[in-house]
Design goal:
Carrier of the growing fatty acid chain in fatty acid biosynthesis. This protein has three helices and no strands. The chain has about 80 residues and is mainly α.
């Protein structure tokens, strides 16, 4: 799975879960500054991504932007085939 595919999956999930227009979600989008998400919102997104990608996401890691989250998923996928 490519980084672009992961980004598209993350963007779709965030758009659906948080009722945010997909156009507002880029790799540089900051969860708190750009989307005004609180920690519960971020946790819910992470929980859904863990289920979708069958990984565990450490919330201690600094995941401030969508790009941070996409890169985390890409490097922690079980098949390690993200590019």
């Amino acid at each position: 799975m490519t980084t672009e595919q992961i980004f598209n999956d993350v963007k779709a999930l965030m758009s659906d879960q948080l009722d945010v227009a997909t156009e507002k979600i880029t790799m540089n989008t900051n969860f708190t500054e750009d989307l005004d998400l609180d920690s519960l919102d971020v946790f819910e997104v992470i929980d859904q991504l863990e289920d979708q990608f069958d990984i565990e996401i450490e919330t201690d890691d600094k995941l401030a932007t969508v790009g941070d989250l996409v890169q985390y998923v890409a490097t922690h996928l079980p098949d390690r085939e993200a590019k």
